[in-house]
Design a protein that fits this description.
This protein is an alpha+beta fold. It contains 22 helices and 18 strands. It folds into six domains: about 170 residues, no CATH class; about 100 residues, Immunoglobulin-like (Sandwich); about 100 residues, Immunoglobulin-like (Sandwich); about 180 residues, no CATH class; about 130 residues, Up-down Bundle (Four Helix Bundle (Hemerythrin (Met), subunit A)); about 35 residues. The strands form four sheets. The chain has a five-stranded mixed sheet with strand order 3-9-8-5-6, with no helix packed on it. Strands 12, 13, 16, 17 and 18 form a five-stranded antiparallel sheet that branches. This is Kinesin-like protein K39.
Length: about 775
Amino acid sequence: MPALSRKLRLVRLALLWERAWPPLAAALSLLALFLALALFDAGPLLPFPLHAALAPAFALAIAVLGWRAWRVERPSADEVARRLERESAASHQPLAALSDRLAAGDETLWQAHRARMEQAARHLRPGWPDPVLPARDPLGLRFAALLLLVTAAAGGLADAPARLARAVDPYSHRPVLDSDTMEVWIVPPAHTGLDQILLKPGQGAVTVPAGSVARAVTSWRGWGGAALSAGGAGVAFGEDGRAELALTAGPSLDVRLGLRRAASWPITLRPDAPPAVAVARPPQGDERGRLTLELEASDDYGLTRIWVEVRPASGDGAPLRLDLVLPGERPRQARPLLRADLADHDWAGRPVRLTPKAEDGAGQTGEAPPVEVTLPERQFRHPLARALADWRRRLSDAPRLGPEIAGELRQILEEPQAFGGDTRVFLALSVTRHMLMRPDFERGRTRSLLWYAATRLEDGGLPAAEKALEDARARLERALADKADTARLSRLVEELEAALDQWMEAMAELGLDSSVPPDGGTPAADLSDMLDQLRGLAETGDREGLRRRLEQLSRLLAEMGPARPGQRGDPANAEAMRRLKELTSRQQELLDKSFRRAPPPDERIEDDEDTPRPRRKPTGREAAEARRMAEEQKALRQALEQLGRSMPQAPQSLAEAERSMRGAESSLGDGAWGEAADQQAEAVKRLQDGARQILERQEAARGKGSPALIPRDPFGRALNGSTFADDGRTKVPGRGETMRAREILQELRRRSGDPHRPEPERDYLKRLLKPF
């Protein structure tokens, strides 16, 4: 019966549903609960272990319940028949009767019974499955899960995919990339001078110097730990959430959190190139044995040292190292100038190899190809000086010749006229002779004594003055490179000024014309203005300006130098300049005395617009002092008149200085100290103008033309072939401007240290003073 078979299949399905539905409903409830938690975005709020186990736990539970639903016991045919009969309320179990067989009895009666059972089976109804969940879930938890799902869907459907992804994959949620929870930056090596590089999420390729260090800090705390890695090397984050890794290779810098790479940045390491150094101009020497060599050097991150290594051409002997001072701190490009006086060295006059070398902050060294040159040798014109230099050289090569040279010195000492009776030369030669008579004499000391005697005979006290000047200049250069404070810079500038005065006096004593450089550059009289500028720059702390001015002064002094043969100045002019300098100094002393005795400026006024003010009558002691100073002023005026008559063409300024001296003499006789001080100050100024005019005439007489007609660049500097030449007419801040700048700087410092001023104002003042 097809209809009965269909009814039995429906009953079988109903029974199967009733048995499988409870575990299947539980699985669906768990799925609804997981989806609700996912849409609520509750996973990232859990600790990482719970968040990571959330999805697997739900999946496992759902799989177990699904497996149980699949593996339920299938209903038997008898159970299906009984259920169909029970659902139809049929009596006598018609389906069981239809399956029975007649064992014995009346066949006709049995057939009638089967017909009646078949008729009853046609009226059977399968019915609906029985509700089984209320008994299994009396609290209705399945509806609670459904309600949570509906509520979560109402607010989380907009970004449901992202929330579901975060629930399933805990690593897809990366708050560590937020700057509040994680920062990664790269620290370049200190010698590069580069700033730190902060890496941002999604940033492109980064090029960093070799030797850089990657640092990271994070507040992430999760399962599996965190690590910072690059080029196969890695380091784990410490308990404090920090990690540091030296970058040795690329191609990327990665941050791993747990089992996932949370961030990655492509990196390229740029190697540090060694410094490059070359000879800018070939080495040059002069007859005084001084070597000049200009170099040019560069480095990608900055130079730290530069020097020249001197070796004999034969390769014997330890090398000699000549250090140069770099302009500023770690310059990337430099063009330093080497000025070395090696005239007293054993290698003077012999071929040597000069090897310029430079070093950068990473300790890498670069060198230029060696340059072969013959070290300049001092050329002596004095016969005895030449002999002493020759004996000195022979002692260096053959110390056994000491007794023989001692005998020569004994003959010289017996004839003092050979060295002009100079007691210092006599003492040096006497000590040398006694030392050479001993077999174990000190070769270095005897060489020094012989050299001192030779240079003393040749140039008097000039070599010692030159050495003192070069030492003072070198100390100031070194102090600038070491960032010395303003007090030390000011002290070194004063030492340089004193050494320069000593050098000028030594040249004047020899009658050498140091007023104009060989190429017609700046007159020596303008050196005082340059020194004033150096002093002002040192007191205001302008190191860069001081460095430039010192370089200008160094080049100027190298150009000036003592005159070479054919360039010696006129002795008459040298004597006139010496006497004029002496007169200026004496006049300045008188001015200082008058100024100390003069009354304050407001008391010097004898009358005003209405009533005259009587002058105070000087005491007897004051009158005697005034007469004495008037006699000194008269003697000074007469000396100036005599100097003017001795000159072929005296400058007009000297005549004006004489008139001012005459007025000062009259004022001193009347006891008017204030008027005398004013007139003496005018006399000093006119004397200085006269010295300047004499120097300009000498310059014009050399064929350079009038100084006023010297071609100049747009900045007012003389175009005479010297890079740093300046004839004093370049517009630079004068002493008044420098003093004003110094006063402003002192006032700013005072205000910045005043605790009663507002904090914003003090911070602003400190920022202003930071460069100084």
